Amino acid sequence: MKKLKHALVIVDVQVDFCPGGALAVPEGDAVIPVLNKYIKLFSKAGLPIFATRDWHPEHTKHFHSHGGRWPEHCKQGSPGAGFHPALHLPDTAVMLSKGMHPEEDGYSAFDATDRHGATFKNCLKQIGITTLYFGGLATDYCVKWSVLDALTFGFHAVVLSDAVKGVNIDRHDTEKALAEMHQQGAETTTLEKLTRLLLQ
Fold first, then answer.
1. Which entry of 35, 37, 48, 187 is 20 to 30 Å from 90 by CA?
2. What is the sign, positive or negative, of the torsion defined by CA atoms of 167, 172, 174, 176?
3. ω into residue 51 within 30 of 0, thus cis?
4. Which residues touch 142 (CB under 8 Å, ≥6 apart)?
5. Is 12 labeled as catalytic in the residue annotation?
6. What is the pLDDT of residues 80-95, one digit of tens each?
7. pTM of the model
8. Is 142 a catalytic residue?
């Protein structure tokens, strides 16, 4: 396990997506204590950690006010766009920003770039990553599209089933998203299972 190239991807654990935020995922903050344990696990194993964030401009087709689906959220530089303060990201984590163009939704981590403008895909290729472990918000949108894109680009994708929460605009959206990811080839795991695997 340790000889292979694995990385943790924390998707959009931002203030606006947690209870009290502009586009809160129900119980979205419940993923944070579990993700913090995953962060410790990956850090201890010397494996890279990526964290995506929505980073929308003031005017974007993503928002209701410009014909989109969603209320205003995660606007660049706003408090709501910050990572949740209870999320313990290490200094070595690579931050990825997405949804920055006024004409894009930016659901997937593969729409994101790092602070130097490098795409997520290129970041992964440069360090030889083959397997991605996804946790965060929301299961039925940004997590789902990130996982599906990972599979499309030839990565092995694993959903951290104990560290994701869905929006559930329709009651069964999370279940459908998990089923779709599984059908396309994604696997699932939990902290207990992955801890045993990484420590082998």
1. 187
2. negative
3. no
4. 11, 12, 52, 54, 107, 108, 109, 136
5. yes
6. 999 999 999 999 999 9
7. 0.94
8. yes
